[in-house]
Each structure stands twice: as structure tokens, then as C-alpha cells.
Design goal:
Blueprint lengths: L3 E6 L3 H11 L4 E7 L4 H5 L5 E4 L5 H13 L3 E4 L12 H14 L2 E4 L10 H7 L7 E9 L5 H7 L5 H9 L9 H12 L5 E10 L4 E2 L4 E2 L4 E12 L2 E11 L10 E7 L4 E5 L5 H10 L2 H6 L3 E3 L12
Parallel strand pairs: 1-2, 1-3, 3-4, 4-5, 5-14, 6-11
Antiparallel strand pairs: 6-12, 7-10, 8-9, 10-11, 12-13
The structure holds NADP nicotinamide-adenine-dinucleotide phosphate (NAP).
């Protein structure tokens, strides 16, 4: 069997790392990562798999996905909203799903969060329970390794006034993708979510902090606590709490992930240290190439796929 051809679009941290991981494995022929200047070259490549690692929003990647699918490629996209595009725009999701089926290719929104901790791993754990009464996932993350663009989108580096103004204008996104993980999990378990509530509370720096690409001055937002609650039958069913900060030690925290499945025999799993957002995401995406090539055509979620594995 010949090498699997993979082209990468998006030459930021993620695209660069995924290309590095795949190039170290002889089973892949890797092209890119390409920047915006080489958009057509990347998306029209006709590679077996095109990885799109550019931005977070379905609306911003929909045309790119369409172009790659039209060229006959399977697509792995890192945009958080793409982990469950139906939760964002049913029309766009359905059209791309149908287009992928016409071309006999698969689209997958993949990553660590969403894509692993709050959905795949949760679903795997539910496999040893008789019935799920509720789910809670707490994640504490070191944000210092993200690019300046991603940090700003998360809500880092703003004064109290700027943060409040941007939050009111819907421009503070915090970490994106919790509703996607909640819907993927609920759909897989045959549960219907009636409402998802969100709250984000900034943490302002008491002193200056240097993240990899952003200096946060004293008084500016250096982190946040974000909570999402999905309601089922008028009761909280899935609760997510995410604490992110560019200097976790300054708030006496360290990276940690905890998953609790409330069941007849409650399950609790702690990952300490918590999964690293950069290496975890790039590995999940690189390790998703094989499962996407083998998947049924259409836009699938991680609930429909076997685990991502680093087959050498
Ligand atoms: N699901 C997950 O778990 C997960 C994990 C990691 C990352 N992500 C998401 O994946 C995206 C990429 O992550 P990253 O860490 O690589 O970010 P990054 O380091 O900021 O790199 C993003 C790259 O994409 C380019 N880009 C941005 N918007 C674009 C567009 N609309 N069209 C073409 N190119 C565009 C940027 O170029 P310019 O500098 O020219 O804008 C930059 O080179 C982010 O949105 C991030 O939130 C998701």
C-alpha cells in the first residue's frame, strides 16, 4: 500500500506541529503547511486528507472545507465549532455533509478540546456504566503557549473596561467548543439537551506575565474561569468548568483534568498533569488521519469513530 497523502492548510502552531509529527512517520507523504497565499495549492491539492488548521469558526472555514471536498479530499479541521457543526449552522452543516457524501469523502472536526477530553474520553468512560445520570468535567490549562491571536480570542490581555465592553459585544469567546462537546456526547447517549448556559469570569493579573507571544500587564486579564451547563429534563446534566491562565502558578493552580460520571457506581478520573493543549491537539489531529481515511463518507463527529492512535 502506498503512502497516504496529506496536505496542510494553516501554518500556525498547530499546522506546523501536525506536519512535523506526520513527516516523522514514513506512511505519509506530507505537503505544507501552506499559508493564505497558497490557499488554492493547499485546498485543491486532491490529497487523500487535507488538514485545515486556521481559525475557530465554521463560517470562516466552510468555503475552505467545500473547496477541499470538491477536490476529492477527506478533511480534518481544527476549528472548534466544527466538532459539531449542526450546533452552529444546521444549513451549512447539512450542505457540506451532503457534498462529502456525493464525493465519497469524510469531514471531521478534531482536536483535544473539543474532540477528546470533553467528549471522546467522556464517552469512553460511560461505557462501563449502566446509565449516566450526569457528567462533570473540570479542566485547568496553562494558556501561555498559545499564539497572540488565539489568546486575544480567548479574552486575554484586556483591561477591566475593555473586557466588560467586549464581553457585552459578544467579542470575548473564552474557550470555544463546549456546546459542541456537550451535543456530541448527548447525541451519542441518546439524550436531548434543552438549554446550555454559559458564564465567563475574568481573572486580572496582579503583576506582569510573559506568555509566549503576549505580554500581559498588571491589571489586564491573564485568565478566566468559564462554566457551561447543559440542561436535560429541567436539571443540570453536563457541567463543564474550564480555568485557563497564562501563569497558573500565580493563582496557585496547575494543569489538571477531572472527569466525573454520575452513575450507579460513580466514576472519577483525574489526569495530573492535565493534558497539554499544544502537544495534545497536534497529536490527536495527526493521529486522526487514518481513522478519517477509513470512515464512512459525510461529516462525522468523534462519537462515530474509533480512538485516534499513533500507529507508526
Ligand atoms: N479543537 C481543538 O482542540 C483545537 C486545538 C488547537 C487549536 N485549535 C484551533 O485551531 C486554530 C489554529 O490553531 P493554532 O494554534 O495553529 O493558531 P495560530 O498559531 O494562531 O495559527 C493560525 C494560522 O492560521 C492562519 N489563519 C487564521 N485565519 C485564517 C483564515 N481564515 N484563512 C487562512 N489562514 C488563516 C493564521 O495566519 P495569519 O497570521 O495570517 O492570520 C496563522 O498562521 C485556532 O483557531 C485554534 O483555536 C483547536
Amino acid at each position: 500500500m502506498g503512502a497516504t497523502t496529506v496536505t496542510l492548510y494553516g501554518a500556525g502552531q498547530l499546522g506546523t506541529q501536525v506536519a512535523r509529527i506526520l513527516r516523522a512517520r514514513t506512511r505519509y507523504e506530507v505537503d505544507g503547511p501552506y499559508t493564505r497565499a497558497d490557499r488554492e495549492r493547499a485546498l485543491d491539492s486532491g490529497a487523500e486528507v487535507v488538514v485545515i488548521a486556521t481559525t475557530s469558526f465554521l463560517a470562516d472555514v466552510a468555503d475552505d472545507i467545500r473547496a477541499a471536498v470538491d477536490a476529492g479530499s477527506n478533511v480534518i479541521v481544527s476549528a472548534e465549532e466544527c466538532a459539531d457543526p449542526w450546533a452552529v449552522d444546521r444549513g451549512v452543516a447539512t450542505r457540506l455533509d451532503e457534498l462529502a457524501k456525493e464525493h465519497g469523502v469524510t469531514i471531521l472536526g478534531a482536536g483535544l478540546n473539543p474532540g477528546f477530553i470533553f467528549d471522546s474520553l467522556v464517552l469512553t468512560l460511560t461505557g462501563v456504566t449502566e446509565e449516566v445520570r450526569g457528567i462533570r468535567v473540570d479542566r485547568t490549562v496553562d494558556l501561555s503557549g498559545f499564539s497572540g491571536t488565539v489568546l486575544h480570542r480567548l479574552g486575554i490581555g484586556f483591561s477591566r473596561e475593555q473586557f466588560a465592553r467586549r464581553d457585552a459585544a459578544g467579542e470575548i469567546h473564552g474557550h470555544i467548543g463546549f456546546p459542541q462537546s456537550m451535543h456530541v456526547t448527548a447525541d451519542a447517549l441518546g439524550v436531548s439537551i434543552s438549554r446550555i448556559d454559559r458564564q465567563i469570569d475574568p481573572i486580572f493579573a496582579e503583576r506582569e506575565h510573559d506568555a509566549r507571544e503576549l505580554r500581559v500587564a498588571a491589571g489586564e486579564s491573564a485568565g478566566f474561569v468559564q462554566r457551561y451547563t447543559a440542561t436535560v429534563d429541567d436539571a443540570p446534566w453536563f457541567e463543564c468548568a474550564f480555568t485557563g491562565h497564562v501563569a497558573l502558578e500565580s493563582i496557585s493552580r496547575s494543569p489538571r483534568d477531572t472527569i466525573t460520571i454520575d452513575a450507579a457506581r460513580t466514576i472519577s478520573m483525574v489526569l495530573e498533569p492535565g493534558l497539554n493543549p499544544q502537544s495534545g491537539s497536534s497529536s490527536v489531529i495527526a493521529n486522526s488521519v487514518d481513522r478519517v481515511v477509513r470512515a464512512a463518507p459525510g461529516w462525522v463527529t468523534v462519537a462515530a469513530l474509533p480512538p485516534a492512535m499513533p500507529r507508526q
